[in-house]
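Recall the central idea of this unit: under ordinary conditions, the amino acid sequence of a chain determines the structure it adopts. In this exercise we apply that idea directly, starting from the sequence alone.
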Amino acid sequence: MSSVRYLGNRKMNSVYLGHLSRIFPDMNGIQLRSTLKGYWRVHQKALLGLFYSGRLSMENVPGIVCWENRDILDEAVNEGKGVLLLVPHFGDERTLHILLAITGYAMHVISSRYSDAPEILKEARLSVSRRWHHVAFPDEPLRWIYDAIERGEVIQISPTGWGGPKGHWVKNFGVPVLASSTPVRLAKSTGCRLLIAYNRVLPGMKYHIAFHRFDPENLDVSGTGQLFAKFEVIAKQYPEQYNWMNLVIRHRETNTIARLGSIPKEEPVLEAAAVRADWDPANIKEFQVVSSISASAVSTLAE
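Accordingly, the structure predicted from this sequence is:
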């Protein structure tokens, strides 16, 4: 499946390889292609994991999960201040919250509605999660987040997703991206704990879940920048596990925003407005120029 996906990407492979060659300058062509093929292998395993997750239970999870620094999560939960799990697009992030919920943690996740996905895929992505824990959507009122934090529960979010008009401009792998400001804003307003977590895919549909403390110097744009710097370290340690599709999309969105001179309210607007040059891995905007596009400069194209 991963070979078919790699071959099916055709011209898009050059976009991925262009970014990878910049990020890993010491890799030769063979190594870069091997890394990209490895990523697609992990990506396809994560896709299969959506369907495999229906078989997960309290009985079999202990045999398929290896934990790293689980004491950090337990310590944060025991503080009772609520925990925000900051999970990059890496390995199998969609199965992470399910595994944690089955293990006994009071979990919540913010998820896409997958409105445009086939019904079988939407069902696989949402039904198993709902069986084990609360699933919320970005367009819902946010009161539940504050209630969950007040109860000392765990919320998983993906800061590497669409940042939106309230996002922070940060550098990610050498390119400016619009990142979510939610982690630092929530921590500042609630005092909840911030932890980095990721779920590395292992052979045989097994998983390695790791946790790291994240205590930024400031709960502002600089804190968001520190978070993405830590994501880079993780990605470079396990380059086949990082979701390079996410970087490609975020980079393309930045180029589109720079052309428009404004930040749309909705992410699909950027996708519709993109041109071929926006995908070019060599088309990297100056950080100072892009970051000058303020959050108040919201496009009306969606209207």
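Residues 299-303 have pLDDT under 50 and may be disordered.
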